[in-house]
Write a structure and sequence with these properties.
The protein is an alpha/beta fold and 464 residues long. Helices cover 41% and strands 10% of the residues. Bound molecules: flavin mononucleotide and iron/sulfur cluster (SF4). The site of iron/sulfur cluster has 14 residues, from helix 15 and helix 17.
Length: 464
């Protein structure tokens, strides 16, 4: 296994890594000082653009491009930076490690980003269950204020800056950026129609950049290394513009579940075998892997890349197993799934894919905000049909009904929760149709139900 350099997580193993003293001794705030005292905002923006950071929150949108969507500064108009630290996607627990083990990396990234986009205020919207993360971020903000890194003149610059830690209230949908903004404003956490996008009209009606924790935590090292060098860490071809290093999560039936840092572009096989230590039970082969949080369609080892056209961006991996394709935003899309949050859930042969799907659909039915009929009705309907199938009260036509309901949800709603429900549902049925038909006829075989630990990872709750 090649050894990769830890960058985002290089302070994780230091004793009391979350404290200002330890983080600062290890280099924290050097880049913020340089940026605020010597670099023009445009220069910072161009380094971030050159770094080719694809947003780490799930959609993979280029961070530099997003920052470029801000309208020109206007007298009397505020600009906000909002950090999405809601991390509610089942199977995803990477941002949590950054906030708990190295909150100063995120706070430094926020200071630099505020400088770049011309913001005085940043809100970090944190999932409320992450109490330790919230406490450490709050302490970090107090330490920054005491040292003059935040406040009226951060690093002596005449540009006031403030960071507010805002705990959410436990709703998955508040991770969707516009729902998050409504919640931040004290309104019901429901997604807004886009456009206007937050960069044009966001928090409190003002231009707002919403970025994921990991996206912004990368910014200090982007400046330290230079954007082009940071981008070149990626193992993907440069033309894919998917740069840098990432935090990969892995959970489920592997020996060493956890969060590991590696360049963009390692394969799922490396993640499972090298970082995850291989399958938990050697006699139970891999059945399916959800590559990047529960909204991403499941993959199987036996499926191969089909890209015979030499002009296809995936041609160089033609004929390879899906597990041997480098993980990137566009490569994963090319094989019919998504990179998402880059946190994989591994399921071995003991897992019933029908029950796994049922479990996920129950989660989405519970979390739909209910604004759009296809989502409100569709998520609950999928869960109910799967309940019937698992109980042995289904029929073969119900399997087609799952497909039909999902197809009617896709692309017909305000936010991506509905697509994030329908896409994995369609993949489960397409790839495990025989199993769905068998269960529809006979119900779940005894002993095939998900064990508590896997169920917990799929629904993001504590094991029963
Ligand atoms: C239902 C739903 C939940 C989401 N949850 C999160 C989340 O917990 N954290 C996150 O960063 N992005 C989440 N997103 C994506 C955000 O809407 C947004 O794309 C992201 O915060 C942008 O940051 P990035 O460009 O740095 O990735 C979610 C999207 C949807 C549709
Ligand atoms: S798609 Fe679902 S979660 Fe998103 S706005 Fe519509 S009803 Fe709400």
């Amino acid at each position: 296994m090649p050894t990769y350099k830890n960058i985002l997580s290089n302070r994780y193993t230091l004793s009391r890594s979350w404290t200002m003293e330890v983080a600062e001794k290890a280099g924290a705030y050097q880049q913020a000082r340089i940026a605020l005292t010597t670099l023009a905002p445009e220069r910072v923006k161009s380094e971030v653009e050159a770094a080719n950071i694809r947003g780490r929150g799930g959609a993979g949108f280029p961070a530099g491009m997003k920052w470029g969507f801000l309208p020109p500064a206007k007298e009397g108009q505020d600009v906000y930076l909002v950090i999405n630290a809601d991390e509610g996607e089942p199977g995803t627990f990477k941002d949590r490690t950054l906030m708990e083990k190295d909150p100063h990396r995120l706070l430094e990234g926020c200071i630099i980003a505020m400088h770049a986009i011309g913001a005085h205020k940043c809100f970090i919207y944190v999932r409320c269950e992450l109490e330790l993360a919230i406490a450490r971020l709050e302490q970090g903000v107090r330490d920054c204020q005491a040292r003059g890194y935040l406040g009226a003149r951060p690093f002596g610059k005449d540009w006031a800056m403030d960071i507010v830690i805002h705990p959410g209230a436990g709703a998955y949908i508040c991770g969707e950026e516009t729902s998050l903004l409504n919640s931040l404003e004290g309104k019901r956490g429901e997604p807004r129609l886009k456009p206007p996008f937050p960069a044009v009209k966001g928090a409190f009606g003002m231009p707002t950049i919403v970025n994921n924790v990991e996206t912004i935590a990368a910014v200090p090292d982007v400046l330290a290394m230079g954007g082009a060098a940071w981008s070149a860490i990626s193992l993907l071809p440069p033309e894919m513009k998917d740069g840098g290093t990432r935090l990969y999560g892995i959970s489920g039936h592997v020996k060493r579940p956890g969060v590991y840092e590696a360049p963009v572009g390692i394969t799922l096989r490396e993640l499972i075998d090298d970082f995850g230590g291989g399958m938990l039970h050697p006699d139970r082969p891999l059945k399916g892997v959800i590559p990047g949080g529960s909204s991403t369609p499941v993959l199987r080892a036996e499926d191969k890349v089909h890209a015979p056209d030499p002009k296809s961006p995936l041609h160089r991996w033609h004929g390879k197993s899906h597990l041997d394709v480098p993980m990137g935003v566009d490569t994963m899309r090319g094989i019919g799934t998504m990179l998402g949050t880059c946190c994989a859930i591994v399921m071995d042969s003991s897992v019933s894919m029908v029950d796994a799907a049922r479990n996920l659909m129950k989660f989405y039915a519970h979390e739909s905000c209910g604004q759009c009929t296809p989502c409100r009705e569709g998520t609950g309907w999928l869960a109910n049909v799967l309940d019937q199938i698992c109980a042995g009260r289904g029929k073969a036509a119900d399997v087609d009904l799952l497909v039909d309901i999902s197809n009617n949800m896709m692309g017909n709603t305000i936010c991506a929760l509905a697509d994030g429900t329908a896409m994995p549902m369609l993949a489960f049925v397409r790839k495990f149709r025989k199993e769905f038909l068998e269960v529809a006829e006979k119900g779940l075989p005894s002993g095939a139900r998900l064990d508590g630990a896997i169920r917990a990872q799929l629904v993001g709750k504590e094991a029963a």
